[in-house]
């Protein structure tokens, strides 16, 4: 699971710089004061390392969120493990993007986006899309979805979406996206992310 920890750590440190804790929780009292005593057992302060190590025990898949940058007419994207399905009727999915992302502003302008569910052999694709700057799609083969967004060769499935809502939530924005089309792509096993590293499904 240690392989790939560098790209994952880069994401962690970009989003939550070392030493930066999460704002301590306070409880509002009935009269609205924010400094009321916190009940015994409540969490009052959470440091970044503890937050990451506990949340890292939640195993996820990894997606590549891709689109065509209208400025350059070139494909771009980022790797994300915060993806989830939300609603069937209407068909909605969601993912979270850090305010520090330099690729998200380009994807926002793309109109249609593609969520690519990455397969286990695509670990290098994941790492490449997680690097800030440069040509995100260098040596990555892709074809166009019906709406023209990049479907990456080797992905298990693709979901074509457009942004429906964005909700600012702390250091991220929660993006709710409407599904316009989707399909299975290649057969294979998923790329998993767990405890800050990559793994595979041995089911
Ligand atoms: C396994 C993995 C999961 C990631 N998940 C997210 C995520 O859910 N949200 C996010 O904003 N960035 C996530 N990142 C970081 C982005 O892929 C990317 O590194 C970051 O957006 C910086 O690149 P950019 O400036 O080109 O956007 C993840 C990175 C890795 C390696």
In brief, what are we looking at here?
The chain has 203 residues and is an alpha+beta fold. It is 16% helix and 36% strand.
* Sequence of secondary-structure elements: HHEEEEEHEHEEEEEE
The biggest beta sheet is recorded as: 7 strands, antiparallel
Percent strand: 35-45%
- Ligands, ions, cofactors: flavin mononucleotide
General form: globular
Question: Which class in CATH terms?
Answer: Mainly Beta
Distance between the termini: 17 Å
CATH homologous superfamily (4th level) name: Electron Transport, Fmn-binding Protein, Chain A
Q: What is the rounded Rg?
A: 18 Å
What's the arrangement of strands in the largest beta sheet?
Answer: 3-2-6-9-10-5-4
Give a description of the structure.
16% of the residues lie in helices and 36% in strands. The protein has 203 residues and is of the alpha+beta class. The chain has a single domain, classed as Pnp Oxidase, Chain A (Roll). The radius of gyration is 18 Å and the shape is globular. It starts with a helix and ends with a strand. Mean pLDDT is 85; it is low at 1-5 and 13-38. The site of flavin mononucleotide has 22 residues, from helix 1, strand 3, strand 5 and helix 4.
């Amino acid at each position: 699971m240690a392989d790939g920890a560098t790209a994952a750590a880069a994401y962690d440190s970009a989003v939550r710089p070392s030493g930066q804790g999460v704002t301590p929780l306070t409880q509002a009292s009935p009269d609205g004061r924010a400094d009321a005593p916190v009940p015994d057992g409540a969490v009052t302060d959470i440091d970044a390392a503890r937050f990451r190590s506990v949340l890292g025990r939640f195993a996820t898949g990894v997606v590549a969120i891709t689109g065509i940058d209208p400025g350059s007419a070139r494909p771009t994207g980022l790797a994300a493990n915060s993806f989830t399905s939300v609603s069937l009727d209407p068909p909605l999915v969601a993912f979270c993007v850090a305010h520090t992302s330099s690729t998200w502003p380009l994807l926002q302008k793309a109109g249609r986006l593609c969520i690519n569910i990455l397969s286990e052999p695509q670990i290098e694709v994941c790492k490449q899309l997680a690097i800030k700057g440069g040509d995100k799609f260098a040596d990555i083969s892709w074809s166009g979805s019906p709406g023209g967004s990049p479907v990456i060769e080797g992905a298990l499935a693709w979901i074509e979406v457009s942004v429906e809502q964005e909700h600012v939530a702390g250091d991220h924005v929660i993006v709710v996206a409407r599904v316009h089309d989707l399909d299975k792509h290649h057969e294979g096993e998923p790329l998993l992310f767990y405890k800050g590293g990559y793994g595979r499904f041995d089911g």
